[in-house]
Amino acid sequence: MDLKKTNAPVNTVTYSRAKIEEPTGNIYEAITIMAKRANQINAEIKKELTEKLEEFATYNDSLEEIFENKEQIEVSKFYEKLPKPHALSVQEWVDGKIYHRDATK
Asked: Which of 11, 22, 57, 71 has the fewest CB atoms within 10 Å of its CB?
């Protein structure tokens, strides 16, 4: 997932209910699909962030020495400024990038 190329809003946006429920015909089903996708996105972001922060990890048992690594701070700030996973999920849903199917049909 390329988080830099997303056009998801960082702030709160109001979406049309009709636009959200259009692909499924049911608002609750649409919200459930978006919530599952948001959980997937959150897991991907967390994994990516953990991998990047492990590069800066120092394994010291001493509590007296705490280093402030500027690169680590910049990585953390980048991830803090990203749109939230639910915003990314809704944007993917509106753009038609989420594949869904009804297993009962």
From this structure: 11
> What is the per-residue DSSP string for 65-78?
-----HHHHHHHHH
pTM: 0.81
| Extents of the domains making up the chain | 3-95
Backbone angles phi, psi at 93, to 5 degrees: -65, -45
CB–CB of 42/85 below 8 Å?
Answer: yes
Q: Which amino acid makes up residue 16?
A: S
Interval 64-69 mean pLDDT = 62
| One-letter amino acid of 105 | K
Cβ atoms of residues 45 and 3 within 8 Å: yes
